[in-house]
């Protein structure tokens, strides 16, 4: 069965610093997709970044990048130069036939 | 519309009443998902529709929950004989194909008194 684990319920980071959110998953598939979603207090889920498993290169979107380790089934999110607007719940998600979400990490950004 | 819309945004109901939640996906999106999110929790998969295929109902928590979708358009999630434990935010998402990023609606906050 596919499962997604986010072992950090809460994280905090100083403004302008870098923080890494961890995510691991379990699958027997070789071709799948991984996502990080952000959910601010407004509760609107927003896609942050996406990674196709067949691509070895780590995805990057401006200040957001991932460290995708396929063999280790690890998919961490790095946020550089953290901003106050980055404060939110972050969900890791796995998709092959269906979407599976982790339990989320609440990120606080300290001014 | 430009995004996924859901209505109502908030719903307060009395225990035992039936409720209907509506989702309008992005035009052209063949896949549609419903999730439940309890306060401070992650997303709990309920059901998904893919084109004209039979929906995957494996996440529905009880037979009080049902959902319909007409073609590739609007979907309604119905909860019969609501219970206090049904109080949550119900999120709808759509995607262009089954393996693609989901676009979420703003959710419906359901409160059962």
Please summarize what this structure is:
The complex is a heterodimer of chains A (111) and B (113). Chain A has strands spanning 3-5, 10-14, 19-21, 24-26, 33-39, 46-52, 60-61, 64-69, 74-79, 88-95, 99-101, 105-110.
Descriptive account of the structure:
The complex is a heterodimer of chains A (111) and B (113). Chain A is mainly beta and 111 residues long. Chain A has a single domain, classed as Immunoglobulins (Immunoglobulin-like, Sandwich), CATH 2.60.40. Chain A is built from no helices and twelve strands. In chain A, strands 2, 5, 6, 10, 11 and 12 form a six-stranded mixed sheet that branches. In chain A, strands 3-9-8-7 form a four-stranded antiparallel sheet, with no helix packed on it. A two-stranded antiparallel ribbon of chain A has the order 1-4. Chain A is globular, with a radius of gyration of 13 Å. Chain B is mostly beta strands and 113 residues long. Chain B has a single domain, classed as Sandwich (Immunoglobulin-like). Helices cover 0% and strands 46% of the residues of chain B. Chain B is built from no helices and ten strands. Chain B has strands spanning 5-7, 10-13, 19-24, 31-37, 44-50, 65-69, 75-79, 88-95, 103-104, 108-112. In chain B, β6 and β7 (75-79) form a beta hairpin. The radius of gyration of chain B is 13 Å and the shape is globular. The A-B interface holds A 32-33, 35, 37, 42-47, 50, 91, 95-104 and B 33, 35, 37, 41-43, 45, 48, 56, 89, 91, 93, 98-104, 106-107.
């Amino acid at each position: 069965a596919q499962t997604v684990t986010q072992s950090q319920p809460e994280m905090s980071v100083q403004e302008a610093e870098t923080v890494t959110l961890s995510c691991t998953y379990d699958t027997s598939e070789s071709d799948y997709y991984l996502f990080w979603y952000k959910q601010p207090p407004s509760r609107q889920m927003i896609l942050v970044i996406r990674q196709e498993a067949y691509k070895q290169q780590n995805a990057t979107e401006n200040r957001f990048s991932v460290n995708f380790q396929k063999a280790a089934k690890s998919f961490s999110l790095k946020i550089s130069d953290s901003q106050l607007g980055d404060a939110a719940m972050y969900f890791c998600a796995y998709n092959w036939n269906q979407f599976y979400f982790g339990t989320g990490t609440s990120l606080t950004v300290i001014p | 519309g430009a995004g996924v819309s859901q209505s109502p945004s908030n719903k307060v109901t009395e225990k035992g009443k039936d409720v209907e939640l509506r989702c309008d996906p992005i035009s052209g999106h063949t896949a549609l998902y419903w999730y439940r999110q309890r306060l401070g929790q992650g997303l709990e998969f309920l059901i998904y529709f893919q084109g004209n295929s039979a929906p995957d109902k494996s996440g529905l928590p009880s037979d009080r929950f049902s959902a319909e979708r007409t073609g590739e358009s609007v979907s309604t999630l119905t909860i019969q004989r609501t219970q206090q434990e049904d109080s949550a935010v119900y999120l709808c998402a759509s995607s262009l194909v089954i393996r693609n990023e989901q676009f979420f609606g703003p959710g419906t906050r359901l409160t059962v008194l």
